[in-house]
Amino acid sequence: MQPAISVLGMGRMGSALAHALLKAGHPTTVWNRTPAKAAPLAAAGAEVAASVRNAVAASEVVIVNVSDYQATQSLLRDKEVAGALEGRLIIELTSGTPDGGREAHGWAQRQGARYLDGAILATPDFIGTEAGTLLVSGPSAVFEEGRNVLGALGGNVQFIGEDPGLANALDSAVLALMWGALFGALQSIAVCRAEAIDLGVLARQWTATAPVVEGLVSDLIKRSAAGRYDADAETLSSVSPHYSAFHHLVDLMEARGLDRTITGGYEAIFRRAIEAGHLHDDFASLSQFMGQPA
User: Fold this and answer.
1) Which of 49, 85, 258, 270 could form a disulfide with 55 if both were Cys (CB 3.0 to 4.6 A apart)?
2) Total domains in the fold of the chain
3) Bridge partners of residue 233, in order along the sequence
């Protein structure tokens, strides 16, 4: 028989997690601060707990998906709830910080519970599918214990390492990539609107350009990992042509009165690298200046 699981938090993501567990055959108990949000899960076959303590007591595994780690603490660190955690596996799937995950792991151990920290790299519609990606960190033996449960939530479960903070650290790194693309898109939209370019044209150009951008990002990561910052025969682009083209963008934005918050950050990194003598080095040389304060 599948292990019983309790899910705390019935937002869109928490509800998706509970539905996936039910589909996989796990006896599932759910709890939410607003009971009405748990009603659809009750209709799907889940038990609805009247309290967090009841939810914890009902299952061997407790999955938490609430707004932040502070919210998790307010639920689990209640004296009665904490006393019921001994012997249970806690899987924290709330977004947080690496240090938050490490602290939560230490606290769970002191309660006699086992702990895994996870980050979900998916929207709720991917939960329970082969494409659903979860990053998980914590003791490897505990990960092996929870592997089947995690597998019900997504087909691409990745164990990142023994350090409980690593899942959220990598999550933040991936989100930085995503936000870079999204804020870049917002800037592109602003330029197109200022120059009366139809956004459908921008969409077509993105489709054509995306493979080039993907190749540049992959090369940047590879060269940074190897510390290959000098320009060489395999360099795809050096700092110099990027900096020259960047100034055309800045001039356009100044002429049209567009917000320069983002480009101001680009300018600062460019200048620090160039002042350090990297104008003609590979673009990857800029990575040396992102890992230190301005």
Assistant:
1) 49
2) 2
3) none
Q: Per DSSP, what are the bridge partners of residue 119? A: 135
Q: Of 161, 188, 222, which one is at a domain's C-terminal end?
A: 161
| Alpha-carbon Rg for the chain in angstroms | 24
Q: Return the H-helix or E-strand segment holding 112.
A: none
Q: Mind listing the pLDDT tens digit for each residue in 224-263?
A: 999 999 999 999 999 999 999 999 999 999 999 999 999 9
Instruction: In whole angstroms, give the CA distance from residue 22 to residue 18.
Output: 6
> Given the structure tokens 């160039």, which residue do they identify?
274
* pLDDT for residue 294 is more than 80: no
Starting at the edge strand that comes first in sequence, how are the strands of the sheet with 133-137 ordered? Answer: 47-48, 28-31, 5-8, 61-64, 89-92, 114-120, 133-137, 156-161
Under 8 Å between Cβ of 216 and 268: no
The CATH code of the domain that includes 151 is: 3.40.50.720
Residue 48 lies in a domain: yes
* Measured distance CA(247)–CA(153) in Å, rounded: 46
Q: What are 118's strand-pairing partners?
A: 136
DSSP reduced 3-state for 89: strand
**Residue at 249: amino acid letter:** L
CA angle 258, 259, 263 (to 5 degrees): 110
Comparing CA positions, the residue from 13, 1, 52 lying closest to residue 30 is 52
- Other Cβ atoms within 10 Å of 198 Cβ, number: 10
